[in-house]
Amino acid sequence: MVRNNIKYFFSIIKISVIILLISGCAHTPNEVIDVLNVTEKVIEEYPDSALTLLEGIDTTQVCGKADKARYALLKTMAVDKKLIDTTSFSILQPAIDYYEKHGTPDQRLMTRYYKGRIHMNRGEDDAALISFLKASEDSVECTNRAALARLLVTQGYMYNKEGQYNQFANCNVRAADIYHSLGDTVRQYSCIARALSGVNIIGDSIRTRILLDSCIKAINEYHLKDDNLFIPVLLTIPVYKSKDFFNSFVARWNNDSVVNNSIATELAYAYIRYGDIQNALKFIEMGDRTDTLHYDAIRSEILETARDYRGALDAYKRYLTYEENYLQELINNDVLFTRERYDIEIKNLKEQSAKERVIYLTCGIIFFLIIVCVMIYLYLRNTKLSLNAAKVSLENTQLSYELSKAENENLEIQNTLLVENLE
């Protein structure tokens, strides 16, 4: 008996300890919540500080699916903003699991965006595109404009890979408007420069002139020297500006000793457009040979113009080889058909949803009619029963009346007989 009591006592202790452990981790401490709140405020401007704050948190103190998802999303944002190209979902996974069903439009959009970014880092462009397309579903209700701008830029990147340059330009123009409203001048004009390259490719001269003038003005006024801004400008100026303008523009912002290989390739392209073979040859030799498609396309044209036909043919052959490999990579990655499949899938889901709504509505109407019929049946049945009851009551009343009448007649007869006997 005593032994059983001891076992019972220890069982109670074990259960109490488990309850205490569970209740102790039911809520994230307020100090941790405060750190998450501060991180959320500074992460856009100071990602390094945000990452330091997050790494200082004891993750065992982050409890509950909501807080774990929030920590995971903030950590992924901070890592991405530090230009750390992670290929693992281990950090983001709690956010993916939770926000898919419970998150706000902002949280879902950002989670799907960073999921797409990880897929891109892994070379899974088709899966990345699906994530970005799903993220765009929440863009209408999204209140985090910086997140929306990042999504638009990345969507533009995917359009560019698909060769849809008009949509590529439109996404970057929309992103530039958002960055302008946020006062982020550098990112604003980086987006405008990307849009410039898109409209220039499709030959939209009106928009190209407008965006080119805007970029040149930004370079002159804000002294921006980002390659992402310079390169589209250098590629576009020869079509719309004079050689004197180009020379003065280049002389103001660059000189031979500081030209990097990316800009050198674009300078070579510009000079061949102006017919300046000497400078074109000079800068193409300084160009970025890692971008083989772009480099060999320009080099083959320059060498052909310089009548170095053998060199031009070799460069053109390399260009064709890399272009074929690039296209094959796109096909293997299935990006060219992913958007179409996604649109078909969404269309099918909408049609299925519409069919289900019709089925539910039909079932609802049938159920309603059944209820109405049952109510009418019960009403008629009750009415009939009431009528029958009233009829029976009336018959009973009539019978009672006749019985009463008969009794009265008997009384009268008895009274008459009594009177006669008395007489």
Description:
By secondary structure, this protein is mainly alpha-helical. Helices cover about 80% and strands about 0% of the residues. The protein has 18 helices and no strands. Helix 5 packs antiparallel against helix 6 and helix 10 packs antiparallel against helix 11. The protein is elongated, with a radius of gyration of 41 Å. The protein starts with a helix and ends with a helix. The mean pLDDT is about 85.
Radius of gyration: 41 Å
Low-confidence stretches: none
| Derived structural class | mainly alpha
Distance between the termini: 106 Å
Number of DSSP helices?
Answer: 18
Helices and strands, in order, run as HHHHHHHHHHHHHHHHHH
How many beta-strand runs?
Answer: 0
The proportion of strand residues reads: under 5%
Give a short account of the largest sheet. none
Shape: elongated
Mean pLDDT: 84
- Helix percentage: over 70%
